[in-house]
Amino acid sequence: MDRQIACLHIPSFGITLARTENAALRNRPVAVAPVHTPRALIREVSVEASGAGLQPGMSVELARLICPDLRVVPPDSSRMEAAHRELQQRVRSFAPVWESIRPGALFLDFTGTSRLFGPPIDTAARIGRELTRQHEWRSMIGLANEFDCSYWSIRSWLRQAERDGGQGDGGLTSPERKELTRLRRENRRLKMERDILAKAAAWFAQESTPNSTSSSDS
């Protein structure tokens, strides 16, 4: 039997929890960072803050200069741990086997649950709707048919989702990857044009050499 594995991830989990408690933080640039010093480094940014050019690892001082409307909230490990336990309870009835990755992220094993809940993709969508309805936690869920073959693919997907959400290891976001691909393609085209022009210039120089020689002889 093929194993049916899903990766559930709530982007910017700390900011999601802060916005659940404080509606004034919604739809505006928000960052998670220690607030005792402006030299503290940002740990997490909202989509709005990422769009303004902010990213994890940036100093709060610099971030405020770039984005004056930024709201900074302190990290709350207790709140995140409690919310993660609640997340585990919510998925337990749909996925009897699961593995915690970090707060706000889980691997779910739907193998053998189709008779009870239907296709895994429908179960994943139902979990997402339940989390949004009950907690206003908007999640991302990716499915894989074979765990042994897709484990690292899922981890790669999770890392990319974190980057796109303003978290992660500082790697390229999906839009940045697209832009890099476009620039590389453009660079290849320009290099090809340069090579063609160089060859054409060399050919014209070679063709003009006998004429100039003949003129000097006469």
Give your account of this protein's structure.
There is one protein chain. The protein has 218 residues and is α+β, with helices and mostly antiparallel strands. The chain folds into 3 domains: 5-12 and 78-164, Reverse transcriptase/Diguanylate cyclase domain (Alpha-Beta Plaits); 14-73, MutS, DNA mismatch repair protein, domain I; 172-218. It has helices at residues 13-21, 47-51, 60-66, 77-92, 114-117, 120-135, 147-164, 174-217; strands at residues 5-9, 30-32, 44-45, 71-73, 97-102, 105-109, 140-144. The strands form 2 sheets. Strands 5-6-1-7 form a 4-stranded antiparallel β-sheet, with helices on both faces. Strand 5 (97-102) and strand 6 form a beta hairpin. The longest helix has 44 residues, at 174-217. The protein is flat.
